[in-house]
């Protein structure tokens, strides 16, 4: 070894885990801050900047034929894209798992639900107040919640409107997503969505 080479750093082509942790961690933090705090938009810019920087590093390493190092920056970009594309499916799966894990709690919700007549009941099991919308888990044995507004019966509307203290029915519009069986997740938004 020559004296001139002592202390010279050697740039090896290796896979690095830090970029993946940085980008995916930042994305998760952004999702949480959007729901619970008020600086989600700032973190979104941070994640986008990271994404662009990683893309630049990716192509830079590809040009220098450092494939494993390039993969270090390709992996978090691919992971972030996949998480963004599948986030609705992930949330839906989480809701279904929660129904199974806390089945006794949801069974109590059914028992205390309001009578719709003909053996059908409607109950609000859970409510979550976020910064920009309200979410609710409901049980609707009649499944009228999934029907168009004009197809819901007057009796159903009367019963559901009586539950405004538990969820903002008739105040803001909502979208319904079936979780499993007669359980639905409702997203209430201050938009021009049909109410009743």
Overall tally of structural domains: 2
Query: Major beta sheet, specifics?
Result: 5 strands, antiparallel
* Shape verdict: elongated
What share of the residues lie within helices?
40-55%
Strand content: 15-25%
Mean pLDDT over all positions: 79
Distance, first to last CA:
82 Å
Unreliable residue stretches? 5-9, 35-40
User: From the alpha-carbon coordinates, what is the Rg to the nearest angstrom?
Assistant: 25 Å
What structural category characterises the helix and strand content?
A: alpha+beta
**Biggest β-sheet: strands ordered side by side in the sheet:** 1-2-3-5-4
Could you spell the SSE succession in H and E letters? HHHHEEEHEE
According to DSSP, the number of beta strands is: 5
Give the count of helical stretches: 5
How is the secondary structure organized here?
Blueprint: H1 18-36, H2 40-63, H3 67-101, H4 103-111, E1 114-117, E2 120-129, E3 134-140, H5 154-161, E4 173-180, E5 183-189
Antiparallel strand pairs: 1-2, 2-3, 3-5, 4-5
Helix pairs in contact: 1-2, 1-3, 2-3
